Write the structure tokens for this entry.
Amino acid sequence: MTINRRQFAKLLGAAGAAGTLPTTFAYAQGGAKVVIVGGGPGGATVAHYVKKAAPALDVTLVEASAQYTTCFFSNLYLGGFRTFESLVHTYDGLRSMGIKVVTAMATDVDAAKREVKLSTGASLAYDRLVLSPGIDFIWESVPGYSEEVAKTMPHAYKAGEQTRILRSRLDAMEDGGVVVMVAPPTPYRCPPGPYERMCMIAHHLKTKKPKSKLVVLDPKREIISKGPVFNEAFNGMYKGIIENNLSNDIDSYVVTRIDPKTMEIETKAGKKVKAAVANIIPAMKAGQIAFKAGATEGNWCPVNPGDFSSKKVANVFVLGDASVAGAMPKSGFSANSQAKVVANVIVADLAGKPKFPARYRNTCWSMLGPDNSVKVGANYKPEDLSAFEGFVSKPGEDAQLRKQTFEESLGWYSGIVSDTFAKSA
Amino acid sequence: MSRSRIVVLITSAVAVILSAPSARSDPGLMALGEHLAQECTSCHRKDGSEKGIPPIVGWKVPEFVTTMRFYKTGERTNPAMVSVAKSLDDDQLTALAMYWGSLKRPGRK
């Protein structure tokens, strides 16, 4: 779906004629209220682009953390290719645009009253609510696992303190120790994430603890993203370091028991491993506030593909990892792309700005080793979020191309955090 | 650069220039370009600085359109850009070129 020059001129004309303005535009003059819950690449980008296009709108971003640590690139910190500080971003850029950034948990939504309740006891009224809460864990999907146990057997799948715990445990481990990763069932955040992490941990072991091993227990039957290039790395540069156990008809590597005291992990197939360091990534679901808002069906939030409005609650949008987004993966790039569509719909609706046809895109880079990265990407149709003109890196690519892809990934990181958090240089 | 590639480049550039004059004064197209450019800034920095992905700020319209067409025809091969270029029609490419061309290139060292 495209818009040509003539159609666009018509569209501008229509928006300019007072009689045809959206009804909500009238009260928007006083500064209609947009509340956004979740300050990651979905929510922060919506805040940025709504405020930029319509400065008169009252935009509030609610986020539990005072600073945001990106999950994307956190594996590179585990591999020793990135500092922790380089993953942390402030909301100063968004604040300087006039966005109210509130450091609090959103604890409830009253859709009838159009009100969000915060952990501070305060309430925020909204005309449009955007939920971009990311993921929560289904702790009981791994018997014996809990938020408490995660302090010693980290998931490191929400970046921040958890990422630091996993890295410090890897650093402290003696050479010869076994690192065990429990991979999550689908659907989960960042499809290539566990495999990139396997490469980064394996690199850490190869260069610092060559007698050590990484054992992966995966409830899935196959590598679900960039399989051929990851397999090339597992069987090539990390041969003898990674033992990747994928489930099959005979053996199931679904974990049936973990013991944080003995660090033993047992699977349905009867495999028992004693971990020196354990990284347990449980099953996932939409962030808690999506359930409170009534925006979920099962574990995730159904949305209309054309604009990511909730199929369950009026005046509410859900985007990013929490949404059911067709073929779009749960990634920071996807959330950032969806956010721009949501922002455009909101400013068209509340401030009479021109509305453009939705366009969605994703690209994900993964690092395999030093100067060696791969990528996958596609465009997505707004009708059904099916992919078109997609691509993926191939095994056997030369070192020069892999180095270029790595350098490109650094450029992307710099670009997307600048775009998301309105950061300058 | 091969001679045939130069011919293609010049032909494309002329085609763009011929089709561009009405576009230059079209505020609708510029607004479309600004909107579409939001997609570029998921990777390309808007301040035009180079951090691993080439800056696209301040390119001349024919240079921008021709480069994007090369991704469509296979003269340029970066798969991410091939994928992006193939999702854009000629009007959209011109709109993007006008918008990026209107931004000032940062000072070079």
Residues 3-19 of chain B form the longest helix (17 residues). Chain B touches chain A through 33 residues (CB under 8 Å).
